[in-house]
Amino acid sequence: MKVGFIGLGNMGSAIARAVAKCDDVSLLLSSHNPEKAGKLQAEIGGQLLDNAQVAAESDVVFLGVKPYQVASTIKEIGENSNNGSIWISMATGVSLETLAKLLPGHDLVRMMPNTPVAIGQGMTSYTSQSSQAKDVFKELMAHSGKVVEIQEGLMDAATAVAGCGPAFVYQFIEALGDAGVQNGLSRSQAIEMAAQTVLGSAQMVLATGQHPAQLRDAVTSPGGSTIAGVVELEKNGFRYAAISAVNAALKRNQELG
Ligand SMILES: NC(=O)c1ccc[n+]([C@@H]2O[C@H](COP(=O)([O-])OP(=O)(O)OC[C@H]3O[C@@H](n4cnc5c(N)ncnc54)[C@H](OP(=O)(O)O)[C@@H]3O)[C@@H](O)[C@H]2O)c1
């Protein structure tokens, strides 16, 4: 299968790294930014072509440009796209309806990935009206992490929680690390401890299926140090801050869409 990529920034290149792990795929990479594309090609292989060639030769095209660039990028390609190809857009807020107007006759997938896709630990939601496109998409994303199908109406929520979520988690890891440094740990020790703690705790949630509050209760002994910290987080509106961050991101997604 020839799999093309137009838009090889943070997200497009993360997806390309995951797709490169699939058997029997040839990668066609857009040469729009020769420096970025060349570096990626050196890492994962594939051919460098211009956008029109990628569109003409690919069986599947991943579109990784910014939402405001989607229409102009597709219009530039004009009549050149392969008629039978599947197009997969990762653009925040760009609906299947809008994509169908820009790419009439193509099977379409709208996806919402996050950057941990690059290391096979992503969280990707997707929606499509074509069962063939869904099957191809799932096959190509097999090495990307978790992939779930959702209704298109939930895409903004998925974007705010999982697409934007890594930034919120990094901020939490940074803050835990700062506290470690304040109390004498080296920066690298503190960040490693914070990151591994977040990773292990997240894996506990997924592996046990327990509600996070149950897992938290299991580590808060009466009158102990952990409950002292938990109360301080509550006092400072930690959970409300996280909920507000997701809601602000969701509102902004809707404005951008
Ligand atoms: N970053 C995330 O965590 C995330 C999560 C979910 C979804 N997304 C979605 O992923 C898409 C890309 O976001 P990003 O964060 O990866 O942005 P980005 O790093 O700016 O990547 C966009 C890339 O598109 C290239 N580009 C622009 N115009 C082009 C054209 N006409 N032809 C070919 N390539 C072109 C840009 O190259 P130049 O810079 O050289 O112009 C850039 O490398 C967006 O639609 C975003 O909504 C991102």
SSE topology:
Layout: E1 2-6, H1 10-19, E2 26-30, H2 34-44, E3 47-49, H3 51-57, E4 60-63, H4 70-77, E5 86-89, H5 96-102, E6 107-112, E7 122-128, H6 131-140, E8 145-149, H7 155-163, H8 165-182, H9 187-208, H10 212-218, H11 225-235, H12 238-256
Parallel strand pairs: 1-2, 1-4, 2-3, 4-5, 5-6, 7-8
Antiparallel strand pairs: 6-7
Helix pairs in contact: 7-12, 8-9
The structure holds NADP nicotinamide-adenine-dinucleotide phosphate.
Residues 6-12, 30, 32-33, 36, 51, 64-67, 69, 73, 90-92, 112-115, 163 line the site of NADP nicotinamide-adenine-dinucleotide phosphate.
What is the compact description of this entry?
This is Pyrroline-5-carboxylate reductase. It is built from 12 helices and 8 strands. It is of the alpha/beta class and 257 residues long.
Question: Could you walk me through the main structural features you see in this protein, from its secondary elements to its overall organization?
Answer:
It is found in: Cytoplasm. InterPro entries: 6-PGluconate_DH-like_C_sf, NAD(P)-bd_dom_sf, P5C_Rdtase_cat_N, P5CR-like_CS, P5CR_dimer, Pyrroline-COOH_reductase. It catalyses: L-proline + NADP(+) = (S)-1-pyrroline-5-carboxylate + NADPH + 2 H(+); L-proline + NAD(+) = (S)-1-pyrroline-5-carboxylate + NADH + 2 H(+). Keywords: Amino-acid biosynthesis, Cytoplasm, NADP, Oxidoreductase, Proline biosynthesis. Belongs to the pyrroline-5-carboxylate reductase family. With 257 residues, the protein is of the alpha/beta class. It has 2 domains: 2-151, NAD(P)-binding Rossmann-like Domain (Rossmann fold, 3-Layer(aba) Sandwich), CATH 3.40.50.720; 165-256, ProC C-terminal domain-like fold (Orthogonal Bundle). The chain is 54% helix and 15% strand. It has helices at 10-19, 34-44, 51-57, 70-77, 96-102, 131-140, 155-163, 165-182, 187-208, 212-218, 225-235, 238-256; strands at 2-6, 26-30, 47-49, 60-63, 86-89, 107-112, 122-128, 145-149. Strands 3-2-1-4-5-6-7-8 form an 8-stranded mixed beta sheet, with helices on both faces. Helix 7 (155-163) packs across helix 12 and helix 8 packs across helix 9. The mean pLDDT is 95. NADP nicotinamide-adenine-dinucleotide phosphate is lined by residues 6-12, 30, 32-33, 36, 51, 64-67, 69, 73, 90-92, 112-115, 163.
